[in-house]
Hints:
This protein is α/β, with parallel strands linked by helices.
Amino acid sequence: MDYKKLLTSLIPEMDEGIHVVDRDGVNVIYSQKMADMEKIRREDVIGKNFREVFSYIPENESTLLQALKGHTTEAQQQTFLNVYGKEITTINTTVPIWDNGEVIAAMELARDITEIKSMADRILALQEEKIAPPKMSQPKIRHYTFYDLIGSAPAFEEAVSVARRAARSEAPVFIYGETGTGKELFAQSIHYDGARKSRPFLAQNCAAIPESLLEGILFGTVKGSFTGAVDRAGLFEQANGGTLLLDEISAMPYDLQSKLLRVLQEKYIRRVGGTRDIPVDVRIIGTVNEPPEELIARNALRSDLFYRLAVINIELPPLRDRKEDIRALAERFLDKHGRDGRYNRYSMTMEALEKLRGYDYPGNVRELENIIIAATAMAEDGEILSAHIRFPFEVTARRQAQSRKAETAGQTEPGGDAAAWPEAVNPTALTEEGLSLPERLRRIEADLIDEAMERNGGNISRAAAELGIKRQGLQYKLREREKK
Ligand SMILES: Nc1ncnc2c1ncn2[C@@H]1O[C@H](COP(=O)(O)OP(=O)(O)OP(=O)(O)O)[C@@H](O)[C@H]1O
Ligand SMILES: [Mg+2]
């Protein structure tokens, strides 16, 4: 096999740039990708000596020349200005190539991460803005405290009492709760009710960042061996003296989890590519939204990190397990979102509340809050009726229920699936035996109204127009129904 041919066709296909020097430091391979990144022409490099072409790089900072001496540099981030002055960031790995105990060449692989890095910088800049908001004119960002935590179900109160104790201590905290159960609210309450409240509170979702960048975001980076970039502090340094909330900590790569553990134990960090140990004093709150024992079992969460964080362990119950709190939460959200200048405060019928209690809330408290916001937007005269309460999955659920009814009436083939049913099921198909004519008519009317409300996104005026009745008439019918 002709390996040279193989290589010359392989190299241009690779995402990484490749640069190889032989034992004398002569550039033997310099791929087009590499040339594009460094904005140097291939013909100006190949066949020439490395020290000549790259004379501006001090010998002890060149990873390729170091590799010729047998040193490997793994996944090092470098930021440099190309000849057009554009800042380029790459991740480089440089290895010696050995033959019979001797280095015969050195190879560098470089991946261009300029765009990913600018994304990371943006995130850090936003975090910095959060720490030091503009002095004047801006309303103060509202922070959550224990006062904002609504709920009296036993499991919830237990969580609050653990969190209150956490606020008085300095220990790391671990919070488990499904999405929308209030993990961030708890974390902020612990911070703003504790001794660190005048210091920064920063939050980072570990699942939102490419794995390769997370370490740099957390611990910072030092400028690469080329010219250009400034040193950058990571979130640990930015949050110094305060609290760092690490959401979805199980999304953090396994080996980074052990670095984090070391930081928790030794209380200093080292920037990526740096050599200096920087002392940090940061309280960590880690969260997950799946049961920790399951995450540990499938190696998503290191058990040693878990035990270190779970010095204080908080479990937030899903909303469906504390339906007794739905009323108090709904009232809080009406208070928070239900003032639009027209009505002093929205009210809610018992039927609307019952409807709220009948749902399972996969999105937990956040979902309830959004449902209330939508309801206040649709309500008229400041009163929220059950018709204004709309669940994201309600349409599907109702359609399935209808098709089930029709099935029992023998109108569909066995095994026929709900999705195959026509949009509007003929209302007469729902007729049940043994009902009086007025009751049957009332049900048909109720179904027609429900469907019109559904189609018009809960807007009473539009639904009324579609049904060919007056808005007040529909409003009356809806209200009468609630009273029954
Ligand atoms: N106990 C509560 N009392 C009052 N409001 C709450 C409560 N829990 C949650 N909320 C409301 O729900 C919203 C979502 O809560 P939060 O952001 O803390 O959830 P989370 O658990 O961090 O969710 P995710 O896992 O999706 O990040 C909050 O903005 C808040 O308005
Ligand atoms: Mg959150």
